[in-house]
Amino acid sequence: MRRHDREVTDMDRIIEIIDACDCCRLGLVDGGRAYIVPLNFGFEYDGRLTLYFHSASEGRKLDLIRAARYAGFEMDTRHELVEAEKACGYSFLYSSVMGGGSIELIDDCDGKLYALRQMMKHYAGEREFEFDLSLVGRTTVMKLVVDEISCKEHRN
Q1: pTM
Q2: How many other CB atoms are found less than 10 A from the CB of residue 5?
Q3: Tens digit of pLDDT for each residue in 119-147?
Q4: Residue 145, CA atoms < 13 Å, CB-side half-sphere
Q5: Rounded distance, CA 87 to CA 67, Å?
Q6: Which of 36, 73, 87, 147 has its CA 20 to 30 A from that of 98?
Q7: CA distance 150 to 97
Q8: Rounded-to-integer distance, Cα 65 and Cα 73, Å
Q9: How, if at all, do strands 91-106 and 70-82 pair?
Q10: Within a 10 A sphere around the Cβ of 150, how many other Cβ atoms?
C-alpha cells in the first residue's frame, strides 16, 4: 500500500467499515479480463472474515465462480468531497476494504438459510425473518472465505 498513513490494520475497525458498506463489488476473471459485479452481501467474522451473496441460478458470474473458485472483492463507504480554492487542493474522504479468497456455491438448505440470515442481519439488524423454503431452494447462495484483506481510510 502506497499510503501507509491511511492503512487500517485493526480488525475491529475493518469490521465497522464493512458493516457501514451497502454494496460489495465481486471481481472475477473472464478470459483474462476483469468482470466486476455489484452485490448485496452479508458477512461474519469469527477470527476469519466470510462474505455471503445471493443471485439467480444462472449467468456469467456463476459460470466464472464455478471455473475459478476464487474472487476478489471491494467495498467502500463514507464518501465526502473536500473542496478547496484550487483544483489541486480538492480531495475525497472515504473508507474502503478490498481483498480476495476462495468462493463456493452453497448447496444445502441449512447453509443457504444461514447465509441469507447473515445478509438480512447486515441490512435489517437483529430482526428475525422467516424464509419461504421453496424460494430458498431456487436461490443461488455464495460464500467467499477471505484470505487476503486490506483496508484504507482517508478521514479528516
Answers
A1: 0.92
A2: 9
A3: 999 999 988 889 888 888 889 999 999 99
A4: 8
A5: 45
A6: 87
A7: 6
A8: 13
A9: antiparallel
A10: 13
Sign of the alpha-carbon torsion through 1, 142, 24, 65: positive
Cell digits of residue 28:
472475477
Amino acid of residue 18: I
Closest CA to 17 of 79, 75, 72, 92: 75
Calpha distance 35→71 (Å, rounded): 10
Rounded distance between C-alpha atoms, residue 27 and residue 29, angstroms? 7
Residue that has been written with the C-alpha cell 452481501 in this structure: 41
- The label of the residue with cell 421453496 reads 134
The three cell numbers locating residue 31: 478470459
What are the tens digits of pLDDT across the range 43-75?
999 999 999 999 988 899 999 999 999 999 999
d(CA 65, CA 123): 25
Query: The cell 476473471 sits on which residue?
Result: 29
Within 17-139, strands assigned E span 24-30, 33-39, 42-45, 49-55, 70-82, 91-106
Q: What is the pLDDT of residues 5-29, one digit of tens each?
A: 678 999 999 999 999 999 999 999 9
